Amino acid sequence: MNSPPAALTGTQSPAIEHLPEAASQQEAADCIELAETYGPPLDPAQRLVLNSWLATTSEGLWSARTAAYCVARQNGKGELLQARSLHGMIQLGEQIIHTSHELATSVNAFNRLRATLENYDDLRRLVKRVRLANGEQGIELRNGASIKYRARTGGGARGLDHIALVIYDEAQHLKPEHVAASSPTLATHPNSQVILTGSAGLATSDVWWQMRLDALRRKPGRFAYVEHSAEQVELDNNGRIISTTPPVDDPATWAQANLAYGSRISFDFLQAQHRLLGDQLFAREHLTVWDQLPEMVIQAGAKIPTEPWLNTVTSTPPTIAAGQIVMAFDVEIDGSYAAISIGHGTLADAYVETIEHRPHTGWMPARLVELVQRWQPKVIVFDSGCGPAASLLGDIRFQFEQAGLSVDILQPLTSRDYRLACNAFLQAIEAGTVRRPQVDNDRLEIAGLTARAKEVGDTWLFDRRKSPEPIVAVTTAAMARSQLSAPAFDFFLQ
How many domains are contained in the chain? Predict the structure, then answer.
């Protein structure tokens, strides 16, 4: 095509939109007013995104405690992040961490915000300090607000607290360990928020893919997702992605994916990019066409059927008092992740929940002490055949003794016990006699969707080694359930 079609402009309606209920858009209105005072007018699509980020509940909390925005490059994502940061710092007094996959991306965002603050006298007077050290860039305001720009690492946010907002830019490269490193920084703030922004997901974008799936599944909770894409995406009855993409050389397709087409993005630019990149790369970079769903979130090969597992979610978890639960812990084969889960109720009406899921194992003994002191579990079980879990027993016993706790509640399961627990857990899922809570980015749900099995003799067990995702959340849930009692007068439920 040699010339652009007449009057073709970028589509302002997102391809995927999942928003929680909200009581007020006043914070968004204030943010938009501030952004347009010190910058160009925002597109309708940009206003929608800010509304999804800054909508509040009737209690004045963020409707979306986690908010995600996926869009191709050059479509104004940087303007939105600056708008949110300015509003957070100037009008809310927030402390913010802005992280990117590459340091250069964080530095660009820093330079953009710094330039805006320096270009206006009234904004300049608000600035207390600008930190320029490479890798430590940041801005402090006189009202106590601050923003720090960092490249992501496994421990890049450790040691910080009372953070109100964490921004994960380039979220297509985000890994669970990055989230784990930053999450504790939000714990002490009463109204914290996480914002993720990025372009089309890659085959390795496990966290980013999970966000998209949560939106497509209309997962309830304080979670928002907006995506501008040329892809037409839906889920089939088995929860699998069905995706179609219009012709990638059609300017109408370009306008569908790029809200800034016809204004900040020209026909000539996209035409040149298409010639340079070819169909596949152009589709990903400029049309937000995602790579294939990565193995870690594909249900193919999983032991637990998708639909029954998704149906185990309950919106009304039971009220649990001390002394009413059983507990289990487990460790991945390579020690990369460990988990603690609880079980409550009976075998005929079991409630399971993963209450801790963290990288590595050093945290486990002390955390078990805290949980035992709080919940007084009847028993704590673990798979004695799993080396990493069993190897923690000495440290756990020591810390229990130091805290004056009985070690008798620590009960190893034999290999046979573990296999029986796995089999019985699957049967309970299929029978609809097990429940779990609805939790944002739930590791138990992911583990259940991806857990694979291996045959052992005439039975099977969940295979920690060959499952594409860490599955200790589901193995601990299975073991915890196995310790619940049969209902009274029913000797057939085992």
Answer: 2
